[in-house]
Amino acid sequence: MTTDTGHIPPGMRWERDDASRVPFMTYTDEALYREELERFFYRGHWCYIGLEAEIPQVGDFKRTAVGERSVIMVRSAPDTIHVIENVCAHRGMRFCRERHGNRKELVCPYHQWSYTLEGDLQGVPFRRGVRQDGKVNGGMPADFKTEDHGLTRLNVARRGGVVFASFDHSVESFEDYLGPDVLAHFDRVFSGRELEILGYNRQRIPGNWKLMQENIKDPYHPGLLHTWFVTFGLWRADNKSQLVTDVHNRHGSMISTRGTGDGSGAGAQVTQVSSFKQSMQLHDPRFLDIVPEPWWGGPTAAMTTIFPSVVMQQQVNSLSTRHIQPVGHGAFDFVWTHFGFKDDTPEMRERRLRQANLFGPAGFVSADDGEVIEFSQEGFESKPTHRALVELGGRTADAHTDHMVTETLIRGMYRYWREVMQS
Amino acid sequence: MSALTFEEYLGIQQLYADYARAVDSADWDRWVDLFVDDCIYRIQPRENHERGFPLATLSFDSKGMLRDRAYGISETLFHDPYYQRHVVSAPLINKTADGRYACEANYAVFRTKLSQLTTVFNVGRTLDEIVTTPEGLRFKSRLVIYDSEMIPNSLIYPI
Question: Hey, how many other C-beta atoms are within 10 angstroms of the C-beta on A175?
Fold first, then answer.
């Protein structure tokens, strides 16, 4: 379109003006991926960092990633959280190696440059040189100022105990970034009630990072791929559903409320899926010991994608954030942080942990998501000039939808992708 | 409580070998059989274990849950077929009462996908509580604590 599209690989072609046919090259081209990092992860967008409950004490830190850049979330005062890039201002070393801990200051071991927990440079060894035999040897130039050489500090947004950051200090507010409708679903889980960290799961999925965004913008697959859901009556065609997105179609929420059957197997007529087994019962039904919570306000599941870096999960009593950390065009690390609320009863805590068996890299209804992403990437790599079809429910990106028989959220994301990448 | 005898040592080694054969030959019924009814089976990242976080990658606390996993593997979980192969170290054994043992052993699991090279899939140690039953030695509790920082995509079969 303009001369600024040199990063679009030659031969990449959208078959239509809309976003209903996605070229495989969007997943396979390394230069294009580098440009995505710049335009989506490092500019103009908010990226997920973590939960405040991960660093409860002053001096606590957590190392994580924004795109491929290493960053440190640190609590520098009881109510102050900074996010700092893990690159020493001196020679660029990624100096913080522990993934979590507690520090009074940040020090790069290479030449002992030390920084405050806010990222300000405190001092550098031999700044004034070394006096020997009556003369001063070396030292930094007279005009060297520590205040010019702090660590890169990111813009930080905190809401309901969740921390986001952006390298871009001119990015819009986090609230405007989500838009009112998606924000309402964010606030439903993160209402300010104190969170408790239950633990982590980490997996590396050999597929393009966008495929995970698509996975949680795709309500077409759960009842078909995740046979387990259907077999045990958790996914039913009489579930009430709603899809919500923002004005840019970046983010999406898939919200569903379980059908009113008993969920244990009665009512095969409502599933309409061949894998439903009327007689099939769990040997231990505690996997699905679902207890509705007042804050749900109806929906039994709400899956929210916040573009580009995170998925927020509420599936019945199981809660997690799922952080997308791209590693080259063909892989991403997927980090799950499961949490509950500090005032959960011991029974509710146990229930959340037991239902966590459904999710994560071994989960009954999540392990297969990683598998299909890997095999999709294999298909793309072998014929990058081909394209994927995203036409269920039409070819446009719709504002709101009251059913699940549509791929509108995926089309919306690619509508936005084209807008940003082709500008 | 008597000292550990050679027969007991051999019995525990046999249980370990039996377990490895069951999970490496996809004999999920045998895998379930090697636990008592009221059992614990957990696969947990070392990070969670050491930091006191309760979350596990898989966390089962009854034989019924193990049966449900076996069903999931063979009937509901879509996954790339693969072979796995365990190499297990000699266990450290602590006899805690007559017929009861607390054991620890290192393991490495290799994964071979069809038409692909063999890779190291998962590495760690097991912390076990073994009891004597009329059917022989069985796991009362098996905690699989893995060093591996990343699951290479997914973990389908038990370790």
Answer: 13
CB contact under 8 A, B55 and A357: no
Q: Contact A338/A378 with Cβ under 8 angstroms?
A: no
Cα–Cα distance, A130 to A319 (Å, whole number):
57
A342 neighbors A194 (Cβ within 8 angstroms)? yes
List, as ranges, residues 202-241 from A with C-beta within 8 Å of B: 202-206, 225-228, 231
User: Given 3-state DSSP classes, what are the helix, strand and coil percentages for chain B, each rounded to the nearest 5?
Assistant: 30, 45, 30
User: What tokens were used for A145?
Assistant: 């100022």
Residue A278 pLDDT exceeds 80: no
ipTM: 0.97
- Whole-structure pTM value: 0.95
CB contact under 8 A, A204 and B153: yes
Task: Show which of residues 92-151 on chain B sit within 8 Å of chain A, judged by CB atoms.
Answer: 149-151
In angstroms, the separation between the Cα of residue B76 and the nearest Cα of chain A is: 5
In Å, what is the CA distance from B149 to each residue of A204, A380, B48, B108? 9, 28, 11, 14
Interface touch A227/B76, C-beta < 8 Å = yes
Residues contacting residue A26 through CB under 8 Å, at least 6 positions apart: A12, A32, A208, A210, A414, A417
Q: Give the tokens for residue A113.
A: 């440059």
